[in-house]
Amino acid sequence: MMGTAETLNTYEEIYYNLWEIAQRYSSFTTFRIIGNSHDQRMIPMLEIGKGQFCIFCISGIQGQDTGASRYLSRLAKEYAQAYEFGWLLEEFYDMRKLLDEIRICLIPILNPDGCEVFQRGYASIQNPIYRQMLRMQNRPKEEFFGNARGVVLNENFPTEYFRRKQYRDQPGSENETRALIRIMQEYESRGLLIFGTNTPQIQWFPEKHCQSVFRKTHRLARHLQKCSGYPLVKYEITGNKNRQEQISTGSAEQYYTELTHQAAFTILMKLPKKEEGEKTYEDLRILPAEYIFSLTS
Description:
Helices cover about 40% and strands about 20% of the residues. It has 10 helices and 10 strands.
């Protein structure tokens, strides 16, 4: 039986929820393993719809993002049901029509090892070398941001301004990073939405080489802001340390915009208390639908 956001707490529960959705709605969904983590956990992806192009919806890049992973998994179930029965989301979004134009590729947990560490501690890492290496850092699991090798994934993508923090750092060195890079290169896509937990805001990544893409990205950002009510933040990228803009060290959003010249957004939501969980989900649930609607209208 497919779970709700309240019951989808672990990597295994989210994995099997996606698999069950694909089994139940096999005529318009596809379940796929896009790669394995360094601790040999499979990274699942669920496609919903029949559109020629897709958008990517990703969460769980850091272990602390399990809240976003839960809600993205719940969203997968709701969108699949709306497609199957021809329901309108919020009495406005015709999900069957939208997803037949542009399908959604959902990756709720890109970093399953980080999720396991955050929830169960370093003992959850099966590889004894990696487990001991992480323990030697003497860092509380609540402050751990990396994968089983201790690498922060959203600083590992081969971008124009990738910077080494240590001499051994190499862009695209991690299994999880390479898995997402392959998918981004394989699929014809029209946008990237990355969901995380922090101070609520929507970050948009402007395309610096093309003014028409810049204007389109800003328009889409305003649509997402209006739907969510979250503050809008423009994430400037530069290699000049003397300027005020933030310096990216190799994020998935930056890599995606450089690769595809399509829009990329980070949607950060408040890590909810139990009684606030439904409000947080309501903030999130229509954003992918609004994004597709804004692309096609």
